[in-house]
Write a structure and sequence with these properties.
The complex is a heterodimer of chains A (334) and B (95). Chain A is mostly helical. Chain A has 13 helices and 2 strands. In chain A, strands 1-2 form a two-stranded antiparallel sheet. In chain A, strand 1 and strand 2 form a beta hairpin. In chain A, helix 4 packs antiparallel against helix 7. Chain A is globular and about 80 Å long. The model of chain A has no long low-confidence stretch (mean pLDDT 93). Chain B has a domain of 56 residues: Phenylacetic acid degradation B (Ubiquitin-like (UB roll), Roll), CATH 3.10.20.520. The chains are: A mainly alpha (334), B alpha+beta (95). The interface between A and B is medium-sized, with 29 and 22 residues.
Chain lengths: 334, 95
Amino acid sequence: MYTQALNVKDTALPAADPQREARFQARIDAEEKIEPNDWMPDGYRQTLVRQIAQHAHSEIVGMHPEGNWITRAPSLKRKVALLAKVQDEGGHGLYLYSAAETLGVSREELVEQLLDGRQKYSSIFNYPTMTWADVGVIGWLVDGAAIMNQIPLCRCSFGPYARAMIRICKEESFHQRQGYEIMVALCRDGTPAQKAMAQDALNRWWWPVLMMFGPSDQDSQHTDKSMRWKIKRFTNDELRRKFVDATVPQGRYLGLTFPDPDLKFDETTGHWAFGAIDWSEFRRVVSGDGPCNRQRLRQRKRAHERGAWVRAAVLAHAAKRRAREQAAAGVAAE
Amino acid sequence: MTEKNIPLWEVFIRSRTGLAHRHAGSVHAADAEMALQNARDVYTRRGEGLSIWVVPSHVITASDPADRDSLFEPTASKIYRHPSFYDVPEEVGHM
């Protein structure tokens, strides 16, 4: 998803310190975890802040497309599951913000950079959720792709990020399974109309989901560096291939077809071969011109602005109580 | 930035009776009571804890990683602090 920020160029950095960098790289090569107070190259810090922040923002914005269906879930069972899942996404965002903050950036700065567009979130959340089947497809495919991306991040060289990812991966498994269960209900136990709805959702989401893994390895900036620093363990194309291999049989079980005429099993490689991805669509969505980019940011800004009085009130309340306690302590001392 | 920042708290959770509290992450909150509530919502959604501590992050004093050798290396040479340093005759059995 969730590693799309690793494909962006760094800004200018101060002069390097080759000796310390060599010692740092030796620690990474020895699979030692880097902790917040340890020395690290500015590039490593900058890459991680951007990457963890983008990941956190994705979790937060990711609540919108699904939140859209909470009030219209078809049963109480589906509703409590969806509520719990959306609450988890919020929680994942908070674990990740807390990991990013250990690198010396404040929560407020991160939120500000999301709202003014300096930091991004995953391209996938700029697509609309038109039907209930979209909720199933998001759990099955979007969370499935996220898991594929996130499991290697549990071994990321930066300790706080790796620890947050372990927690997230444990919770994410429920998300994917509840999504697939929705798909089974629609496709195997549902009416022809329900199955057609599921097929339509798969048709719309399949290509955007494959784009979640980011540009192809030839076009990806800085994959080398992220791999050398062990922030990333597999390339975009490797993860995408693993995801397609895992997903195609699941789709076949549902009796659905994938919207790719070139999708076929390659006996020689043992992998599913798939057609060319339309990278112009990916670039368009990332640069702000996807179906829902403006709506998502508008919703985030509105939520932030409408919460301003709450943030001011809790701080005022805390200050008032502190002042009272201090006054009482003063009286007691006299 | 016109808004005031909301303070940061470190969260420690005891996962089971008999275990020590362990660092779980951090939360933002205006006061201790809200920090506890936020920690409960963020870090214990699936029965991960029986007890939570929250500590204002700014009151924690940490050792400097650069001092690691001078702080911790001396213990490596004091092998006589470990039971395996001492010989017990085999006839005596396990001690």
